[in-house]
Write a structure and sequence with these properties.
Length: 210
């Protein structure tokens, strides 16, 4: 498994070189740039968040099992199985996917801003919902019909799926993939009240269900 993760995480290391005729930035200049970027974000916060607001249809569209980066990761993982058979290999592949996603740093963005899968791979980071979208997309690409993202009022997100008569909960805040005997037991592992769940196939608003 280590070799698979190494190949997934491998990226070229580019040496940072100053532009011709320019001196390397010292620490104080870097801090100034960060402060300026913070000012820009604060000034245009409302515009950014307005643009980044997602509808129900948009949320479903963010789980993308056929997206290029998802397909590439799936291919590397399923290469371990000759051939990949869902009933035999799905859970092992799902655990490998979870380990891969858990290797990304969890960050808190200063504004509501969605990272693409290519952004996440480049930064090796994402917030909880970004990581949930990535993991759910991978599970769906591996053949899971039940994988969904769940969002709670505690501002946490989880991925739940079923396999082999059990339910599984992926908690990116704790980097844990837990098994439960039933869906009801799986829900007890979530922090906070469920607001909504979705995949590329469906969306459910739990507030409307009450």
């Amino acid at each position: 498994m280590a070799s698979i993760l190494d190949s997934l995480l491998k990226k070229p290391v580019a040496k940072a070189e100053p532009e011709e005729g320019k001196e390397p930035c010292d620490h104080s200049e870097q801090e100034l740039r960060i402060s300026l970027l913070k000012l820009v974000i604060d000034r245009y916060r409302e515009k950014i968040e307005e643009y980044e607001t997602k509808s129900v249809a948009d949320m479903k569209g963010m789980v993308t099992p056929r997206e290029q980066h998802i397909s590439e990761i799936k291919e590397k993982i399923t290469e371990e199985f000759h051939p990949y058979v869902y009933d035999e290999h799905f859970l092992s592949a799902a655990k490998m996917c979870f380990e891969f996603v858990s290797s990304f740093r969890t960050v808190s963005l200063p504004v509501s801003f969605w990272l693409s899968f290519s952004d996440m791979k480049e930064l090796m980071a994402g917030d909880e919902i970004d990581k949930s979208l990535l993991f759910c997309s991978l599970l769906r690409s591996l053949g899971s019909e039940s994988a969904k993202v769940f969002v709670t009022d505690s501002r946490n997100s989880y991925v739940l799926f079923q396999f082999g008569g059990k339910s599984f909960v992926a908690d990116h805040s704790k980097k844990e993939l837990q098994a439960a005997e039933s869906g009801a037991e799986a829900f007890k592992l979530l922090s906070g009240k469920i607001l909504y769940s979705f995949s590329d196939k469906e969306y459910e608003d739990f507030a409307e269900a009450e």
